Amino acid sequence: MVITPTEINKLGLVTCVPITSGGNHARQNGLTVVIAEHDTTGVAVCNQVRTFDLSARAGEVKYIETLDQQTTREIINRVTSIIDPG
What would be one Pfam family of this protein (predicted)? Predict the structure, then answer.
């Protein structure tokens, strides 16, 4: 799940959180957001933020779908609270 704004993504870098059907440890510790009612299902693991260089992954990246605004906001808020809990 890409969490950076389009303007940043256009620079060739994207920041993401993985979506998995596992993540039990993270689930138990409140570090995930459930993704339901979409083609993509599972949990976004918010404590595993990654940045990728799209130019280095040419041909490996594809758009799947856009999540609803509420789920997206919940994921971003969870990531933010992990980085800056204050």
Answer: PemK_toxin
The structure tokens listed for 85 are 């809990």
Q: Which residue has the higher pLDDT, 72 or 21?
A: 72
Q: What is the reported pLDDT for 22?
A: 78
The CATH number given to 6-83 is: 2.30.30.110
* For residues 52-77, average pLDDT: 91
Contact 82, 31 (CB under 8 A): yes
Specify whether the CB–CB gap between 13 and 51 falls below 8 A.
Answer: yes
- Is 60 exposed, middle or buried (CB count within 10 Å of its CB: 0-12, 13-18, 19+)? exposed
Tokens of 60: 């490996």
